[in-house]
Amino acid sequence: MAVLKVLFLGLGFPYLILSANTPLLQHWFTRQTNGANPYRLYAISNVGAFLALVSYPVVFEPFMTLDWQVKFWSSIYWLFVLLVGWILFVVAKQYNKERLITSEPFINPRVCFFRLILWFLLSALGVVLLVSTTNALTQNVPPIPFLWLAPLSIYLLTYVVAFSNFAIYVRYLWLPFFMLLSFVALLIYFIGGQFDIITQLLIYLLILLCGCMICHGELDSLKPKQGNTTLFYLVLSAGGVFGSFLVSFVAKNLFNEFLEFPFAIFSVLVLAIFSLWWNKQDEHADVKSTMSGVVANSQLLRLAICSSVVALLWLLVFTKLNNQYQQYDIAKARNFYGILTVKDIKEGKVNERRLIDGTTSHGSQHLPLSKLALPLSYYRPGTGVQLAIEGLSSDSNLQVGIIGLGVGALAAYGQFGDHYTFYEINPLVSDFAHKYFSYLSNSKADVEVKLGDARVSLQKELDLGQKNAFDLLIIDAFSGDLIPTHLMTHEAFLLYQQHIKDHGVLALHISNRHLSLLPVIINHSQTLDMQVMLFETPGNGDEHDAQWVVLTNNTLLTQSPTLIYQQTVISKDQYQKVLWTDDYSSLLAILKVFN
After folding, report:
1. Counting beta carbons within 10 angstroms of the beta carbon of residue 152, is it exposed (0 to 12), middle (13 to 18) or buried (19 or more)?
2. What pLDDT, in 10s, does the model give residues 3-25?
3. What CA–CA distance (Å, rounded) separates 471 from 206?
4. Number of neighbouring beta carbons within 10 Å of residue 424
5. CB–CB of 490/421 below 8 Å?
6. Distance between CA atoms of residues 489 and 485, nearest Å
7. Beta strands in 304-418 (DSSP E)
8. pLDDT (tens digit, 9 = 90+) per residue, 538-562?
9. Edge-to-edge strand list for the sheet holding 470-475
10. I need a surface site. Which of 49, 340, 435, 561 has the fewest CB within 10 A?
């Protein structure tokens, strides 16, 4: 709730005021120009929004700290307020002059209720497609500026093209293409993690482009030809808010799966059918029984029938694939932080239980569950974290802190007298780890789980004068390939250093398909004056490749023959210096596709 409160006051409320001015300014424009059509102005306004989006990662983010960005934005916002006030003065002055002239008022023609519903639903569906595609895209792809920039830019540009005079939207081309893409969307939905980053980007963005083009193109075909522009934009705004509300609140409480993305794909096909039917009625009313009208009606009818068949076939295929995908599910739940699933995988030699966050495994355990279970996956024997724990095991009563719980696999390495403290932000992870896995309950060590953001919790403990004096602090809080940057900044590492002993150890799990965090960690190690040891453990078919980094000055590790033999030699000169702070961080420099 605290996050939602900050977002509403800092972003939501100012954005609400900005959005509310859109139909108002459009109404003033038509009044000042004696009823001129404002649709081209609407396209131009979206061009302005697009240019602002494109300029941010190029002009503002690389050269301005967050503090200066806030100040600059606030100044622009106040300038906007002054300009709106000036426009109000001009409009009010013009209105007073018009009151002296008697003229018959213009009466807007009546708008059919079904047309209003189509306006509302098409506008809402465009936003649903935007938000759900962006959410799907960022589940396993790092949230660099390009990822939030590209979907929103496509969304705006489809509005620009649809409401301009370019006539690019030809439904006889776009609809069949989307029908084909709808089946490609099934692949990316169920096995998206198997594609590389470029392929995922291209598929998601192409689906979004085609879907939004259909929604906004059909909106353009249904727009009022005379008058009612204020009503039109009001309905569009209401539809946009409703679409965002559906994805952000309703879907998260209604579905325990990420169903809004396939729902959006299916809805485009269905809503296109109704829009085609309504346009068919308009064509019939406009051209009566002329030959061109008969041909147009025939084309619309064939498209509607084809869309209906494809929609039904798509729904059958999705249902079958979804049932197969869920056949291993033991438990599934969804909350603010995402979707968690527990699956029992029994295929060939694999017989294990996994915790899945989205499409990424966050730990597993052999079946049947036993008290002697060894950690699997990224935490298995021979990985960097296991070697670090083993190297410190000569010290009795180890104090170990772990940021990120997963299934609690690391607790299996605990011995009598040890104390393991897990920091976990997602309460569902803690519930599932205790209920469906036995690592925590069977650990020989004393195990404690603290809920909440790890950095906030550690800072609160420090403010209260509590230094944990960890022998080992493990940072493993990454969700899929997403990086919580606030846990990887210079200030965060200074906080970690205050919570470990003088010769304590920091171990960081940096296995990632798309990002190389090593340059960031090397830079921090120089600031903290700590040695760096890299451990890369290749997978053996059923296991993942694991990459761990250890920062320490503890000679038990730095001079250990076993660790020296197992470590991967680092050439620090091959990495550029990448400094992350609370006020500045950029993922572009560590994106593997550019390295």
Report:
1. middle
2. 667 777 777 777 777 766 766 77
3. 50
4. 23
5. no
6. 6
7. 329-335, 338-347, 350-357, 360-366, 399-403
8. 887 667 789 999 999 998 899 999 9
9. 446-451, 419-424, 399-403, 470-475, 500-509, 546-552, 531-537
10. 561
